[in-house]
TrEMBL record:
V-SNARE coiled-coil homology domain ranges (all copies): 134-194
Principal cellular location given in the protein's record: endoplasmic reticulum
GO molecular function, one term: SNAP receptor activity
Protein name per its UniProtKB record: Protein transport protein SEC22
């Protein structure tokens, strides 16, 4: 299930956090603390969406309009649903508030806590993925997140890795994927030519001969 949601500007100012129904969970509280550390490392050059693994929980985020939308989920929660949830949250927030409001220097931390009402409502929709009325709708909205970068929290916080480097790695993976796709297409054509080329050449010779002989 989705345990926690956070919306912040990429400069680190937290605008909204979800109320977590009074849950007292040491591991979850630790994950929230680490999330704030990661938030401090974000900037415009960071990977625009990523998954960060941390013990029993997994954090996902997307960046949109100079904002970052985070959620912390149980590790078993489907990643595609988590990103669809974040997409819903980000669309509603950016449609409700404009950048001149949340981007202003006078904007205060936790200024948009009233938005938690929508977060809680949306969270309930995504909690029971087995419910047919919910799952059918979610299944139509699932995003292809197979290429979303995944990193371990230890790499980011304690081994000096960076969110920018994640972006570089992700770009290289996408470029490699394009190269492999082109190579696969070329190899398939070569195999087809090798398999059917002699028959095609023979057919062409026969057609030319018939044309020359009778026309």
């Amino acid at each position: 299930m989705i345990r926690h949601t956070l919306i912040a500007r990429i400069d680190g100012l937290i605008l909204v956090t979800s109320s977590d129904n009074g849950e007292v969970d040491a591991a979850l509280n630790e994950a929230k603390g680490k999330l704030k550390l990661i938030l401090r490392r974000l900037n415009a050059n960071a990977e625009p969406q990523a998954t960060i693994e941390d013990g029993p929980y997994t954090a996902h985020y997307i960046m949109k309009n100079d904002l970052c939308f985070f959620c912390i989920c149980d590790k078993s929660y489907p990643r595609k649903l988590a990103f669809t949830y974040l997409s819903d949250i980000s669309s509603e927030f950016t449609n409700t508030y404009n950048s001149t409001q949340y981007g202003a220097s006078s904007c205060r931390a936790y200024q948009y806590m009233e938005f938690d009402t929508f977060i809680q409502k949306t969270n309930k929709t995504y909690q029971d993925t087995r419910a047919t009325q919910n799952f059918d709708r979610l299944n139509d909205e699932l995003k292809d997140v197979t290429k979303v970068m995944t990193k371990n929290i230890e790499d980011l916080l304690y081994r000096g890795d960076s969110l920018e480097r994640m972006g570089d790695m992700s770009s290289r993976l996408r470029e490699d994927s394009r190269k492999y796709k082109k190579a696969a297409v070329r190899i398939n054509w070569e195999l087809l030519l090798k398999q059917y080329g002699p028959f095609g050449a023979l057919a062409f010779i026969i057609i030319v001969f018939i044309w020359w002989r009778f026309f």
